[in-house]
Design goal:
109 residues; mainly beta; Jelly Rolls; seven-stranded antiparallel beta sheet; four-stranded antiparallel beta sheet; globular
Length: 109
């Protein structure tokens, strides 16, 4: 498993937040010189469903969550230092039972 980044250098941070589920999920976009994009976000306690167009890697920075990928039968638990991948044109259910789940979402080509 790769190490979760602790910082990004030489990037552009978009100040306008992406706000979902009445403010219970909030992220900011980070743009890299090579044209790639990531989002850094917080998920507050609750259950949410996200659809994806592109494939994504969700890296958990801190906190924890339970995830079920669309079409899957099982739920998996992730905590700080772990990640899960989401196929393109799909989605996932994510549940945060307590605290705040901090994440980095990378869009995979």
């Amino acid at each position: 498993m790769s190490a979760i980044p602790t910082e990004f250098t030489n990037v552009t941070a978009v100040t306008k937040a992406n706000v979902y589920f009445d403010g219970k999920v909030v992220s900011h976009s980070v743009l890299f010189a090579d044209g790639s994009k990531k989002t850094l976000g917080l998920i507050y306690p609750g259950s949410y469903h996200f659809g994806t167009d592109k494939a994504e890697r969700m890296e958990i920075v801190a906190g924890g969550c339970e995830v079920k990928l669309d079409g899957g039968e099982t739920r998996a638990t992730y905590s700080g230092g772990q990640y899960f991948d989401v196929p393109a044109k799909s989605g996932f259910d994510i549940k945060v039972a307590e605290g705040i789940c901090e994440y980095i979402c990378s869009f995979i080509d």
